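re: ur question from yesterday

yeah so i grabbed the chain u mentioned. its 271 aa long if i counted rite. heres the sequnce exactly as i have it in my notes:
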Amino acid sequence: MKSDRLNAQNVCENILRDEIKYNIDKKILKGSVIVGERLLERGLELSDAYLEVYNKLNQTPHAIKAFFESITSSLRIWSSEEISKERKNLKRLEEINTKIASVSDDLANLLDERSIIDNNSAIRSNTHYHICDSINAAGNTVSLYKLYVQKEVKHLCGEFSLKYWPSISDILRVISLDALEAEITINDPVTQAALQSQRSSKADLVRIFLADLEGFKKENMGLLPDDFKLTDKSVASFINCVLESDEIFMCEDYVKGVRNRSLKSDDCLRG
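ran it thru and got these structure tokens back, copy pasting raw so excuse formatting
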């Protein structure tokens, strides 16, 4: 009914207005304010989506408010530029770990070679040979180390001779192995969703939108019902209205395809 549709839109838009006012008054979340204002401007296009949200969440206290907090949060933070930046960070971190593994191992070998020369000739390098020397030298730049730790370290170094300690080259080989075997993890499910594919695409936006909604469900300490699922059409409508870009325009079939691929990917991981 027309009255039901109008009521749903009024409820949703009033929640958006309250959120916008709160953020403006507190001078916070400018991006969320922009997203909320865009949604209000495109109200006619979101009529069906508002009705769906209202019908599915109206019986759950504070759920509609939580829903709009979710979408204004995910769509204000993420853009194609942000996703590209995070993807570059991931690749760079992998490169850094590889280089650390290589450089640390090379440095350990050089230290071993230097020790051999020091111990088997009349020539001395006069460099650190005990791990305690390096620890104390580095600690001299840390006031809390000098205040609370240095005395204890010096005591231990005096109590236990060199044979009880790992060499500096041993430490470097551990650093090398640690970097080589490191498994990079992404703790934020929204970021994980964005980086699911190797290349940036508008599918990233769908995965981000859906992942953030999952984070607002009760099973994740949120307020949305665990069985809440927005239709593909409504997901497309919200994203299109917020992004205001013809280049990223997506239809419900596109959203459905992204969802299906994500489900298959999850099934593979569980298998």
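noticed a couple things. The CA atoms of residues 70 and 103 lie 44 Å apart. also The radius of gyration is 28 Å.
anyway ttyl
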